[in-house]
């Protein structure tokens, strides 16, 4: 069976101009010409045009399509290369989207927008250097805090979701905040033998039942709970000034998003209750 250019166009969904273009370039040669010199095509041309249309819709350029139809490369080889290229494009688009979303949410100034864009496009080595510098400044080079430093280290995956990129931008901003660094230094300095992460757990375990039961923080029951923590009220107040800073909890929330961890339990209600109880 033979097909005219118009029939091929109708059967493949291409325009007559497009069919003629591919034929002129030798991608779809005619099987013969009629007495009037018009090109006629066979079923092979129909199948080849369908392949060409599919490849063009997938973003394959005409030069590469020629190599495929000439048998120089396979469709699978070309597809593999395009997947890799598209992965790079998707990553770039995710970064752009994350920066723009953060700018829109914060109403950022031009200067802040530029900074967030730089943070989003840091290399793995640059991100690691930024976090290492932050943790070294905040916790010092104390060997007993090495484990704590590891638990505070974000690990942005190779193919992050937009939410992870947005979280990284905000966390990196926190890490560069001198006041936040000083806050963590105070927390570390309060526990010279090692960072007492267990105190937060003690407070949670002791205070949460009281919160659930509606125990007032100025009641004798609350005073007994404070005494049970085994710390002087003055020392508790010093610890609370740091532990109950919203930036500390926000850092842990962002860290969980970046690392793909479960969202951390909020200690704010328990810490607020304790702050009222020791005031």
Record keyword descriptors for this entry.
279 residues; mainly alpha; two-stranded antiparallel sheet; 2 strands; elongated
Q: Can you tell me about this structure?
A:
This protein has 279 residues and is mainly alpha-helical. Helix content is 69%, strand content 1%. The chain has helices at residues 5-12, 16-24, 43-57, 62-69, 75-106, 110-120, 124-139, 146-151, 162-175, 178-189, 197-213, 220-228, 233-243, 246-259, 268-278, and strands at residues 32-33, 39-40. A hairpin with a 5-residue loop joins strand 1 and strand 2 (39-40). Helix 5 runs antiparallel to helix 6 and helix 13 (233-243) runs antiparallel to helix 15 (268-278). The radius of gyration is 32 Å and the shape is elongated. 23% of the residues are buried. The model has no long low-confidence stretch (mean pLDDT 88).
DSSP, total strands: 2
**Widest β-sheet, arrangement of strands:** 1-2
Radius of gyration: 32 Å
Separation of termini?
94 Å
Short account of what is shown:
The protein has helices at 5-12, 16-24, 43-57, 62-69, 75-106, 110-120, 124-139, 146-151, 162-175, 178-189, 197-213, 220-228, 233-243, 246-259, 268-278; strands at residues 32-33, 39-40. It has 279 residues and is mainly α.
């Amino acid at each position: 069976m033979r097909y005219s250019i118009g029939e091929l166009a109708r059967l493949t969904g291409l325009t007559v101009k497009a069919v003629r273009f591919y034929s002129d370039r030798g991608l779809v040669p005619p099987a013969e010409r009629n007495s009037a010199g018009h090109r006629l095509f066979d079923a092979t041309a129909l199948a080849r045009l369908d392949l060409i249309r599919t490849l063009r819709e997938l973003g394959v350029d005409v030069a590469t399509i020629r190599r495929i139809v000439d048998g120089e490369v396979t469709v699978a080889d070309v597809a593999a290369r395009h997947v890799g290229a598209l992965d790079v494009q998707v990553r770039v688009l995710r970064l752009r989207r994350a920066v723009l979303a953060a700018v829109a949410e914060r109403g950022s100034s031009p200067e802040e927008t530029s900074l967030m864009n730089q943070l989003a496009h840091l290399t793995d080595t640059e991100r690691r250097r930024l976090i290492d510098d932050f943790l070294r400044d905040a916790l010092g080079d104390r060997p007993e805090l090495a484990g704590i430093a590891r638990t505070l280290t974000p690990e942005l995956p190779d193919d992050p979701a937009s939410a992870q990129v947005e979280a990284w931008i905000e966390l990196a901003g926190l890490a560069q905040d001198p006041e936040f660094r000083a806050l963590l230094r105070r927390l570390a300095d309060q526990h010279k033998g090692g960072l007492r992460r267990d105190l937060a757990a003690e407070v949670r375990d002791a205070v949460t039942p009281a919160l659930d039961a509606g125990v007032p923080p100025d009641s004798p029951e609350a005073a007994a709970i404070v005494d049970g923590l085994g710390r002087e009220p003055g020392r508790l107040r010093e610890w609370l000034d740091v532990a109950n800073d919203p930036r500390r909890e926000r850092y842990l929330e962002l860290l969980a998003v970046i690392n793909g961890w479960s969202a951390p339990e909020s200690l704010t209600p328990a810490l607020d209750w304790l702050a009222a109880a020791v005031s």
